[in-house]
């Protein structure tokens, strides 16, 4: 009797184990949602769609981009944080998510606590764009013109606490030249006014300014990196060190995360699929057009990176006297 009972229990355990393994191995068995906490049409949306298209082909299930804009990215990010931690919801986070805790008094989510890192996607250096007038033919001319101006030249930014705002404040602090920081509703209208000569400059990614650069209405003056970058449209543009500035390296970055406590085997499967998608020619071509330098990572590397970024922007906010609102 004891032997028959033991065999029955062993058989049941083996069956349960096999079922559990089958379930883990079968992931995904339905579509995966990729949340973009911004409106369609921007660079993050374009990155998400390039990855989703390729991952849909290799995962065997559709990866559906879900745009949830609003409240400076908080609405979509919070929805993703509260989604079931089963691997069927992913979200792209980026540099503004690391800045937000330093400039926002109450966030509905915690970037480091409420998400499980999957992989880094890539980076793109912030660029200072200016108009085509003689006074801004290069970065040194731009700064000489600014220093000699009777009134502080205007630097457009995308709102208090945004990366373009902090970059402008850092430029003023490091150069000891006064600038008038003027808020806009995003980089598109800001760069339009840079082209028109209404404002002197604006910090943005190459993706934001590429069409106006191509039309020869604005020019890139400075790459906010330690060294020059070999990206079409930015070759020959000086970096910080050769421009007499230091300590304000700023890369826009994008990363893939899942809700906290998502099973590790599922996270690793998603990471492998995402990294493989980033290596595919079609995705690499699209990323290159956006000025994105691909940079996959392990989950541990991404966790350490996000923590370091959050700590860095806390220090920057204190340094320039920016209080959480």
Describe this structure in words.
The chain is of the alpha/beta class. The chain has 2 domains: 32-123 and 252-319, Bordetella uptake gene, domain 1 (D-Maltodextrin-Binding Protein, domain 2, 3-Layer(aba) Sandwich), CATH 3.40.190.150; 127-243, 3-Layer(aba) Sandwich (D-Maltodextrin-Binding Protein, domain 2), CATH 3.40.190. It is built from 11 helices and 11 strands. It has helices at 2-26, 43-59, 74-81, 95-103, 139-148, 163-175, 187-196, 206-214, 264-278, 281-289, 299-319, and strands at residues 32-36, 63-67, 89-94, 115-125, 127-130, 154-157, 180-183, 201-204, 219-223, 251-259, 293-294. The strands form 2 sheets. It has a 6-stranded mixed sheet, sandwiched between helices. A 5-stranded mixed sheet has the order 7-6-8-5-9, sandwiched between helices. Strand 1, helix 2 and strand 2 (63-67) form a beta-alpha-beta unit. Mean pLDDT is 90; it is low at 1-24.
Which features would summarize this protein structure in a list?
11 helices, 5-stranded mixed sheet, 325 residues, alpha/beta, 6-stranded mixed sheet, 2 domains, single chain, disordered N terminus, D-Maltodextrin-Binding Protein, domain 2, globular, 11 strands
Quick recap of the structure?
With 325 residues, the chain is an alpha/beta fold.
What form results from the Cα inertia axes?
globular
The number of helical runs is 11
Mean pLDDT: 90
Number of strands: 11
Rg over alpha carbons: 23 Å
Strand content: 15-25%
- CATH class category of the largest domain: Alpha Beta
Biggest sheet details: 6 strands, mixed
Helix-strand makeup class: alpha/beta
CATH architecture of the largest domain: 3-Layer(aba) Sandwich
Query: What is the CATH superfamily label of the largest domain?
Result: Bordetella uptake gene, domain 1
Poorly predicted runs? 1-24
At CATH level 3, the topology of the largest domain is D-Maltodextrin-Binding Protein, domain 2
For the termini, the CA-CA separation is 71 Å
Number of domains: 2
């Amino acid at each position: 009797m004891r032997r028959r009972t033991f065999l029955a229990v062993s058989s049941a355990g083996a069956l349960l184990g096999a079922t559990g393994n089958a379930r883990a191995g079968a992931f995904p068995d339905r579509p995966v949602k990729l949340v973009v906490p911004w409106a369609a049409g921007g660079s993050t949306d374009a990155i998400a769609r390039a990855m989703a298209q390729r991952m849909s082909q290799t995962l065997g299930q559709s990866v559906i981009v879900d745009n949830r804009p609003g409240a400076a990215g908080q609405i979509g990010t919070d929805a993703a944080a509260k989604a079931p931690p089963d691997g069927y919801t992913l979200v792209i986070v980026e540099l503004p998510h690391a800045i937000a805790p330093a400039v926002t008094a109450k966030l509905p989510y915690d970037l480091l606590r409420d998400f499980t890192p999957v992989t880094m996607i890539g980076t793109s250096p912030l660029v200072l764009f200016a108009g085509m007038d003689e006074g801004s033919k290069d970065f040194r001319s731009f700064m000489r013109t600014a220093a000699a101006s009777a009134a502080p030249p205007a630097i457009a930014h995308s709102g208090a606490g945004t990366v373009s705002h902090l970059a402008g404040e850092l430029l003023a602090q490091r150069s000891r030249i006064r600038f008038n920081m003027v808020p806009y509703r995003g980089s598109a209208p800001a760069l339009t006014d840079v082209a028109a000569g209404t404002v002197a400059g604006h910090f943005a990614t190459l993706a934001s300014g590429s069409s106006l650069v191509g039309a020869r209405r604005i020019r890139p003056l400075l790459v906010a990196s330690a060294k020059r970058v070999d990206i079409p449209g930015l070759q020959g543009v000086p970096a910080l060190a050769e421009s007499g500035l230091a300590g304000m390296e700023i890369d826009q970055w994008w990363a893939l995360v899942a809700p906290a406590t998502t099973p590790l085997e599922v996270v690793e499967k998603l990471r492998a699929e995402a990294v493989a998608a980033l290596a595919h020619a079609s995705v690499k071509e699209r990323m290159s057009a956006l000025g994105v330098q691909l940079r996959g990572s392990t989950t541990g590397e991404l966790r350490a990176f996000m923590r370091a970024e959050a700590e860095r922007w806390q220090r920057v906010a204190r340094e320039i006297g920016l209080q959480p609102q």
